[in-house]
Amino acid sequence: MELRTWNTREAPSPAFVAAWSARLARSPHASFALRPDFLAWDARQGRPALAVLVDDPAGVVVLRRVSGGWSCGWAWRPQMVVEAPANASMGLSDAQQHGLLAAVDAATHGALTRCYVPADTVNGQPAFAAGATFVHGLERSEDELFALFDGNRRRAVKKAAKDGWSIVEATTHEQFRGFAELQAETTRRRGVAVDPVPETVAESGVSWREWELPWMRLFVAMRDGRVGAGSGFGFLEGAAFDYRANASDVAARASGVNVALAWEALRSARAAGFRTLNWGGATEFKKNLGGERVPMWCRLGGGPVWALPNRMTLSWHRVRPQLAALWKSLGKRGAAS
């Protein structure tokens, strides 16, 4: 198999960037984490990758070095996509999986691989269920998107406005830093100690100035001149809008502001011509926004030397739910005795 690849530590050829960008333009689920400028920037931060152009099926794959081998994507954001119609599901067919995973095996030359594959099933592949994400197709009208919200979520959007919250796109250092303070506060409420948020950050793209990067957008909820909540997204023009971060204070959360932020993200993404919005997970909150649930599988690959370790990994993931249920049952018995 002949592959076109780019080691993101190095400058890509113009021809590769042109072919890669053209492929992404025809892939409605391509995320900001596949952008050439993001990949080059990420490599400069010490996170290089191998970008692979695949011709059958027409798609792209990004592989990252991890301990002992390579990884592709995450359990909420795949790093393998194919060209597809605008309203196509994120899920990959058996034939698409076969072609992309064959390219992964060829590019890694038998090294250990872990690839997160969006699919209902992974027939014939050594894989375990790794998670899921919810995705909205943005070809619908605003009214149709709002109707997908459950009743409580629709009422929350109206309550947030009634309580005096306005949703705006963050553009100032004060708003960026205010959101960072909320993130720190949220982490402390969970019992985790965090360092104070720095007053100033000299370099764009670092710390709370990450929202200045050209693939980022941050929406914040404002009332009385202060930030009470925020939701941040990454994006690839004409393709996917990806949820990345959220934080809120107690008052904003009680007013339903987090739902209002989600609604503004959907409206803004649709108006800007994005084709999909990936919520980056499958929590109950995200489920009730009404998107399509996409299962994610972790496919284990590598040469013959990895066959036994991969079988052991699969066995562990198959018995882990039963062990967790047993441990929970024992805990309840102990509490009752």
Written description of the protein model:
The structure is a single chain. Strands 1, 2, 3, 4, 5, 6, 7, 8, 9, 10, 11, 12 and 13 form a 13-stranded mixed sheet that branches. By secondary structure, the chain is of the alpha+beta class. It has two domains: 4-117 and 297-318; 142-274, Gcn5-related N-acetyltransferase (GNAT) (Aminopeptidase). The longest helix is centred in the last third of the chain and has 30 residues, at 307-336. It is built from ten helices and 13 strands.
- Per DSSP, the total helix count is 10
The major sheet is characterized as:
13 strands, mixed
Strand-pairing-aware structural class? alpha+beta
How many strands appear in the DSSP assignment? 13
Secondary structure: elements and pairs:
Elements: E1 4-7, H1 14-25, H2 36-44, E2 49-55, E3 58-66, E4 69-72, E5 80-82, H3 94-108, E6 112-118, E7 127-137, H4 142-148, H5 151-162, E8 166-169, H6 173-189, E9 216-223, E10 226-235, E11 240-248, H7 250-254, H8 257-271, E12 276-278, H9 284-287, E13 292-301, H10 307-336
Parallel strand pairs: 4-6, 11-12
Antiparallel strand pairs: 1-2, 2-3, 3-4, 3-5, 6-13, 7-12, 7-13, 8-9, 9-10, 10-11
